[in-house]
Specification:
307 residues, alpha+beta, eight-stranded antiparallel sheet, 7 helices, 31% strand, globular
Length: 307
């Protein structure tokens, strides 16, 4: 399959305070274009309000055989200058039967693993809830012990109660978590100071009540996460892989001929459809965008609090 890189970030609150490379999106794109001549850059959302930047490389057919360690090759090269950036991922495109998204294997056609990634980027966090993100809030001890106390006190632990997580409470404030559940991951980073409060949540954990192919599951996830942080504004993005149309048609025909043909056909139709959002309690959607890329759908929505 073709080797591909994804780089994305929200617009910065203080671009002039970033390292030189990150002071403008144009500068970042110029650097990435030098590495990936077939790359494409997008600005999604309102240019005079919060918005989201995304860069997709390739795909690169000449790299039909993936490097031994994708994250240590092209992505690592880019990371040399894009260190500290919010999201930098390497993947094989969906044209491969052994595709990956964000470094995780995806089963071949008909497999159970779903290729869906959700990001929730939040600003204007609730000051009262953010007290937990300071040393002395949920715990008087920084580090891993403080991180575990924040997980329990804030409700973060209830998002994926069966997950394995590694969290850290910084001094005097700040929180970070990386977690695994099954073959999926989730990550949280929080800056709680009122003048620049920000939290990011990203996951591709997909299964059970949180099957990210289901708009109702995305709704529940967004509501759970926003209850934890109480943001005034939230950007939600969903990347969902697309199969090729001939492959989808053949798979649908195969599924409909089996014993559970109808159920399989309906599920495959859901898998092939672009991601959609259900209304989020307590928030109003003020911006909605759907992109159709070669191998992925991208759904973007921007929410503001209504109460």
């Amino acid at each position: 399959g073709a080797y591909q890189l994804f780089y994305s970030r929200k617009n910065f609150m203080f671009p002039d305070q970033q390292e030189e490379m990150h002071r403008s999106w144009e500068r970042e794109v110029a650097y990435l274009d030098a590495l990936f001549p077939e790359g494409a850059a997008y600005l999604i959302g309102k240019t005079n309000r919060d918005h989201w930047h995304v860069y997709l490389s390739g795909p690169h057919p000449q790299l039909a055989t993936a490097p031994e360690s994708p994250l240590q090759s092209a992505a690592a090269t880019a990371a040399g200058s894009l260190s500290g950036s919010p999201t930098l991922h390497a993947a094989l495109s969906r044209s491969s039967s052994q595709s990956t998204v964000h470094g995780l294997p995806l089963a071949a056609s008909g497999g159970a693993k779903s290729d869906v990634t959700v990001e929730i980027l939040m600003t204007g966090l609730d000051p009262e809830r953010m007290r937990l993100m300071y040393v002395g809030g949920a715990c008087s001890e920084e580090g891993a012990a403080g991180g575990r106390a924040v997980e329990r006190a804030s409700g973060i632990a209830q998002i994926y109660p069966d997950a394995c997580s590694d969290s850290f409470l910084f001094s005097p404030c700040g929180f970070s978590l990386n977690g695994l559940q099954g073959d999926g991951y989730f990550t949280i980073h929080v800056t709680p100071e009122p003048h620049c409060s920000y939290a990011s949540f990203e996951t591709n954990v997909c299964g059970g009540a949180l099957d990210l192919r289901d708009p109702r599951a995305i709704k529940r996830l967004v509501e759970q996460v926003t209850r934890v942080f109480g943001p005034r504004c939230a950007t939600v993005t969903v990347f969902k892989a697309r199969g090729s149309e001939p492959q989808q048609a053949m798979t649908l025909a195969d599924a409909s001929s089996g014993k559970d043909g109808l159920a399989k056909t309906l599920q495959l139709a859901v898998d092939a459809a672009p991601p959609s959002f259900a209304p989020v309690d307590g928030y109003k959607s003020v911006d909605r965008v759907l992109y159709e890329f070669d191998h992925y759908w991208l759904r973007y929505a921007y929410y503001i609090k209504t109460d």
